[in-house]
Structure to design on (873 residues):
């Protein structure tokens, strides 16, 4: 089986029942994607599959062979943070940081599909991601800030 | 001295074995080491170092090492669980040492390298560790000046320390900390140097960015669950089918069919280690076990159970009651209006996003465990005891962890990983499943609270009798001026494992008290704000209450059946909070949505305004769950809703517009802020529901299924 993760190609032997989350974490040592619930309810394991936010804890690795998989480790380019990563820091949109990779991946997927989301769209798109520390308003602000950074600092 | 909450009183280990002084210095290398001596007995007790003695590091609260390369490393037993202590403590040292934040590294919660610490709880890091590190930073600065005076043969007045450099004003030379200490191995113990007053702060008091923020947004930070060791297996424990079960039979013969799996049965412990989680599931599934347990109660019988089962023996801190002031009976007789009401508080779960996790490795007779815990030294003792080995053969490392909220005081996961690693002869990682976290961790205590009260014609509270059963004594004292009062905490037996939680009983006690205050205001025909201010002398509490009310526009809009306004206030652990809430109630079913919350918070001199604001906001958002919909359901020794699909936690759609006012009191010592901002939200929301609908809800959570079926109105007179 071949997995394409962050534009790198990996040849792996993977049991057909193994979920992508554990292959990423344990076989590829990409531990940025987190286990939070194992049932797709918290979003801590979110990665992009062909650009779409996907819960890797309930996605068998075999099902996404050959597709473009992007994890939190793959969105900074050459050491330069993505606008949303930068915005999370500026907005102090985290406390413990455990949900942060999943939040950033959900937000990245949203901004790819909808470059100028209104606030209710942000909340709707992120509803499946839990931040138990309660930084939701800051995460919304971070997505809005990233939207501004990506459109050259101007409002759409 | 802040009192510890009943459920946070853990006994320290009976014995402690420390690194010898020379071993310790070998670890650090050259440069300068400063030890902060604890002379305040309260601090010494807090850090578990009441015993004196010559051997280092007794009575040490923290230490700072300035290496020959100029890097500053601060060692503290406190840990980081999202409250941003790593950043605030870095700021404190940077301030006093006059060094850039980026030059300072903190080693936290590593039992081989950091001083003993009882744990990170009770909002104690700011009031206890911050002053210690201030002293350490200031003393390090003074010691550097001493070295400079010697080097340049000049007087202290011509030496300044700024931007990580020591400067000589007589010849214009400047030298880095490392160069100054090079070639020396200096050990200084200090207990006081001139501290920078809050009005002169340049680093403290500013919104320094979270020091680990970049690692968090890139996925680079290694949480305990991310640690990997060579040859490591993954492990899991076979859980009983109900609490308080006894294993009656176990057959593990089929496990050997799973390649690479190791099964272990040791007393009541049954567990498996395997190469990956698919094999782990198979191996666990291959075990046949039977458990026996007696019948156990359901959450439907919980509150009657608590009332009818007083604790048989008061242990560890026990109950607490203040003597009766005046005479409640006489106060009631003199009252124009009398109220009598009962409040209930459900069990709730911490639900940290990172479940309990531990990686254990045995090597050359020494056990090393990486785990997410608020008590690394407590877990070290638990491990030493569980395996019958000396404490100096155990090292616990606490990577910055995916939250705790008071829920990670215990070391069960570390013990499980260590037991399986011992059996497998390889390192083992155990990450609890979400279902395990919901079932086998511990809960915020449930409780029953009864209040009898009376108010005079003029709105002065004349009598106050308050009884809390089981949920705990923190925040139980009323801040209002009442001549006749009796306040008691009653420990009881309880059906579920329970322990600390953010704010702990202060949330329950504030919910009951502040709900009751609005009922008294209504009985006296007074506005809730006016009524509180009439009965409140505490200037700090008045200040936050008035600040929140003004910003909120209290009294400008009247509540209607679909929109309500409520307020509440309180103080706890050195912090003062007032919350004003606006809610909407939507038919059908009366779904309650919190639309807007204004908070005013004051905790002395503010160390990091943005992080403080973040904590206040986060506490309020977390508080929404316990206020409106979170409750653990259980029956016959089982948790009935151990999944996020069944146990609802606040999400984006539950979050109101939040406005936070921070009152900065530079004239007062800094207090912690991780807990207290949670306590006023539930009563503010309950009061808003009351003012909108006339329905008083006296149970937390208040509206798990909306307001339909809620018919309680006025308390009985």
């Amino acid at each position: 089986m071949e997995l394409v993760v962050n534009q790198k190609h990996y040849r792996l032997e993977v049991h057909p029942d193994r979920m992508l989350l554990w292959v990423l974490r344990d076989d590829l040592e990409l531990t940025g994607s987190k286990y939070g619930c194992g049932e797709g309810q918290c979003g801590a394991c979110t990665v992009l599959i062909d650009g779409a936010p996907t819960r890797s804890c309930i996605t068998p690795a075999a099902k996404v062979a050959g597709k473009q998989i992007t994890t939190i480790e793959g969105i900074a380019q050459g050491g330069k943070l993505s606008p949303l990563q930068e915005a999370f820091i500026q907005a102090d949109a985290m406390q413990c940081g455990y949900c942060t990779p999943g939040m950033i991946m959900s937000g990245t997927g949203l901004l790819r599909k909808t470059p100028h989301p209104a606030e209710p769209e942000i909340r709707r798109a992120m509803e499946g991601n839990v931040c138990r520390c309660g930084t939701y308003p800051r995460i919304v602000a971070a997505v809005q800030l990233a939207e501004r950074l990506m459109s050259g600092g101007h409002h759409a | 001295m802040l009192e510890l909450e009943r459920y946070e009183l853990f006994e320290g280990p009976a014995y402690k074995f420390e690194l010898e002084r020379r071993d310790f210095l070998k670890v650090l290398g050259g440069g300068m080491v400063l030890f902060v001596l604890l002379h305040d007995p309260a601090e010494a007790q807090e850090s578990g170092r009441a015993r004196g003695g010559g051997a280092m590091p007794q009575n040490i609260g923290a230490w700072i090492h300035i290496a020959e390369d100029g890097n500053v490393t601060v060692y503290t037993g406190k840990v980081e669980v999202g409250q941003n202590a790593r950043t605030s403590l870095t700021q404190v040292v940077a301030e006093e040492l006059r060094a850039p934040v980026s030059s300072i590294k903190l080693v936290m919660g590593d039992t081989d390298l950091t001083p003993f610490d009882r744990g990170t709880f009770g909002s104690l890091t700011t009031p206890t560790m911050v002053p210690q590190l201030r002293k350490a930073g200031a003393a390090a600065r003074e010691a550097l000046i001493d070295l400079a005076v010697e080097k340049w043969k000049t007087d202290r007045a011509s030496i300044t320390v700024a931007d990580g450099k020591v400067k000589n004003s007589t010849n214009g030379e400047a030298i880095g900390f490392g160069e100054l200490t090079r070639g020396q191995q200096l050990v200084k113990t200090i207990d006081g140097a001139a501290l920078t007053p809050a009005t002169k702060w340049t680093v403290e008091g500013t919104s320094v960015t979270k020091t680990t923020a970049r690692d968090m947004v890139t996925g680079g930070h290694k949480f305990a669950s991310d640690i990997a060791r060579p040859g490591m297996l993954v492990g899991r424990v076979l859980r009983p089918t109900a609490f308080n079960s006894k294993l009656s039979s176990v057959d593990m013969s089929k496990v050997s069919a799973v390649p690479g799996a190791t099964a272990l049965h040791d007393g009541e412990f049954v567990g498996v280690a395997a190469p990956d989680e698919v094999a782990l599931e198979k191996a666990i599934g291959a075990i046949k076990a039977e458990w026996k347990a007696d019948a156990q109660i359901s959450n439907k019988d919980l509150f009657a159970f608590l009332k009818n089962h007083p604790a048989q023996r008061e242990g560890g801190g026990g109950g607490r009651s203040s003597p009766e002031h005046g005479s409640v009976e006489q106060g009631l007789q003199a009252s124009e209006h009398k109220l009598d009401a009962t409040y209930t508080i459900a069990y709730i779960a911490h639900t940290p996003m990172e479940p309990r996790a531990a990686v254990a490795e045995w090597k050359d007779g020494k056990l090393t465990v990486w785990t997410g815990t608020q008590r690394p030294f407590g877990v070290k003792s638990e491990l030493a005891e569980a395996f019958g080995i000396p404490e100096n053969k155990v090292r616990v490392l606490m990577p910055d962890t995916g939250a705790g909220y008071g829920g990670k005081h215990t070391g069960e996961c570390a013990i499980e990983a260590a037991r399986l690693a011992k059996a497998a002869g390889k390192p083992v990682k155990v990450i609890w499943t979400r279902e395990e976290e919901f079932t086998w961790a511990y809960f915020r205590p449930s409780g029953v609270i009864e209040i009898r009260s009376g108010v005079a014609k003029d709105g002065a509270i004349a009598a106050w009798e308050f009884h809390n059963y089981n949920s705990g004594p923190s925040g139980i004292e009323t801040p209002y001026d009442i001549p006749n009062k009796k306040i008691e905490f009653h420990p009881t037996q309880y059906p579920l494992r329970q322990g600390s939680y953010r704010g702990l009983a202060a949330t329950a006690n504030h919910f009951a008290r502040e709900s009751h205050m609005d009922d008294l205001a209504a009985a006296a025909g007074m506005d809730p704000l006016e009524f509180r201010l009439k009965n409140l002398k505490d200037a700090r509490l008045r200040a936050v209450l008035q600040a929140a009310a003004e910003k909120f526009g209290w009294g400008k809009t009247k509540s209607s059946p679909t929109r309500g306004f409520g307020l509440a206030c309180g103080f706890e652990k050195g912090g003062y909070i007032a919350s004003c809430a606006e809610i909407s109630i939507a038919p059908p079913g009366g779904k309650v949505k919190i639309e807007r919350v204004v908070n005013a918070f004051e905790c002395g001199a503010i160390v990091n305004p943005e992080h403080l604001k973040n904590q206040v906001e986060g506490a309020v958002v977390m508080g929404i769950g316990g206020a409106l919909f979170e409750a653990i359901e259980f029956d016959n020794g089982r948790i009935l809703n151990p999944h996020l699909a069944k146990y609802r936690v606040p999400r984006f759609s539950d979050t109101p517009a939040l406005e936070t006012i921070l009152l900065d009191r530079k004239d007062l010592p800094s207090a912690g802020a991780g807990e207290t901002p949670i306590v006023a939200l539930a009563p503010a929301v309950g009061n808003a529901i009351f003012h909108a609908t006339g329905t008083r809800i006296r149970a937390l959570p208040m509206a798990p299924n909306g307001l339909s079926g809620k018919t309680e109105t006025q308390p009985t007179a």
Summary: The helical segments of chain A are 20-27, 83-90, 100-113, 119-126, 136-150. Chain A touches chain B through 56 residues (CB under 8 Å). The CA atoms of residues 114 and 121 of chain A lie 9 Å apart. The longest strand of chain A covers residues 2-5.
